[in-house]
Amino acid sequence: MSNSVEQQKRKVFDLKTIEVENVSRIFRISSEKEILALDDVSLHVKEGEVFGLLGPNGAGKTTLIKILATLLLPSKGRAFVAGHDVVKEPAKVRRVINLVSGGETPGYGSITTRENLWFFSQLYGLPKGESMKRIAKLSEDLALQEYLNTRTHKLSTGYRQRLNLARGLINDPKVLFLDEPTLGLDVITAKRIREIVRNRVKNGSGNSILITTHYMVEADQICDRIAIIDRGRMIALGTPAELKKMVSKQTIVSIETQPIDGGMDFMSSIAGVNGYSQTDEPSTGRIKLKVVLNEEGALQNVIHAVSARGRIFEIAKSEPTLEDVYIALVGKGFE
Amino acid sequence: MAVKSFIRSAWYSAWLGWKLETNWADPLTFAGYYLLRPFASLLIVGFIFVIGSFAGGNTNTQYFTYLFLGQIAYVYVLQITVTTGYFIHEERAKYETLRSVYVTPTSIRPYLLGRALSAAFASTVSLLLTIVFGTIVFSGLLGLNLEIDLFRINYAALVMSLTLGIVSLISTGFILSGINLVSTRLQMNLSEYVSGIFFLLGDVIFPPTTLPYPLYLISYVLPVTYYTRAVRASIIDGAWDVVIPNLQMLLLMAILTTIVGSIVFAAAEKRAKRLGVIDRKSEY
Ligand SMILES: Nc1ncnc2c1ncn2[C@@H]1O[C@H](COP(=O)(O)OP(=O)(O)O)[C@@H](O)[C@H]1O
Ligand SMILES: [Mg+2]
Description:
By secondary structure, chain A is of the alpha/beta class. Chain A is 34% helix and 29% strand. By secondary structure, chain B is an all-alpha fold.
């Protein structure tokens, strides 16, 4: 009897490795100007989960990660990592986390890749043999072996980013924070990183990952659940499938047109348009519009408005993707 | 357990500091920083004295010895203060590792301490070489009579003075690091200013009693003043009854600086976390 109660308790307690309760963060810029970078955000991340934070630039994603990684204090609310309060017990939190920010290439340039990793492994108190083993394994996973004895100022940006990821994994963190880890990376490295991320979590170790990304496809591929944040507020939360269902009643069309003078701002004023995004297709010189409509009938209005401004080459209906959810919720696509 | 991890992190940070400081791929930087700079500083002060005394027609060897030892002691002040005051800036802008170090279990305190200790070690090399070099130039080549008697030096007291000096200078480094954590405005220059103030007011080249009234008071609250005095007393006087009062004052100052350093650094770290500037690179 008591055993099963214990087990239940354990389950309820253990399942959540990150808990964010009504967290707000205000940055005071000057005596008059304040930025509300996070506005009453609550969420949790479960053991064995890859959790994605999706949102435009300035949405507050990095701010949330910094609070959880003990680099920044929240203005309001509480947050826990592995059951430890990030404000009151930062040292305990730091024992189970690590953080990798993409687009950054930290490292001590005048020492080698191996020495950089060795140094950080020692800050985590790893025994010598274990440290060597992990350096070998990580450099194999990230194809860094060739460069282990190279001074890191000689490495290309891509390899320095790999080194940064290896550093982030050196303590085998229970909770890993990845802030735009594939930003600016070549396709192959980005793919490799996605694989590593999936494998860390899917091997039954109970590790979890909180990742922010700009890339919708990436989020769709690797995240178990996703929170969409816009201007500090969480506006949607769910599995990729659940999020896509949110737009299943809406119609998604792709339109290929010639470039339109004066831009696409007119789209937002068309009745029935929920949101849109545009991408240039340099190979054809055309523009690809993605439009989320509240009702199919609105398609007429869109075709009318676009063809009045430029030639339409192609129109197609499409299945909802994460990007469409995002467009529908935020009103525009990523720049 | 916590103490053990702290020491361990400090030890490996000292290892890192030594690797970075004595970067053998670029030995010129090391030589420039740890050898040429103190040599040059000693030569300038020495020659100003020599020229001044020729013009004046007499050589006051007692004052020259004072200057010479002030310069020797100042090697630590310069190297340790400047190097440790620079860490935060370097971590943010040059290596971009401040955030990575900060989120490790022991965070940045043992890191800063370890790197400061390796700077102190490198400075000791620099201090010893400056003594040899200075003696050769002034005593040997220029035939100036330094009032130093190798047999009268109280080596035990000298080691204690240097050790306590290191403690107060590293604590000063923590104060500077704290200031740099919350303010990026001074960054690189802060430690240069501070070591400049120590040079002028720390009993290095001017005895405090020769300074004009308000400055004279500042002299007496600077730990550097007591450090340079203790070093001189250990070398010139040697006798314990002269040395002990100096060491006592230095010990008191070292303890005070350590306390103030810890308080300032803790407050600065907290403020930096509140402002969100721990890992910033430029002014927001
Ligand atoms: N230290 C800071 N001081 C002032 N404003 C900041 C600071 N850090 C972030 N901000 C502001 O907070 C908002 C959220 O930023 P951030 O969390 O970096 O967004 P994201 O990572 O989603 O792009 C932005 O408007 C940003 O300018
Ligand atoms: Mg960001």
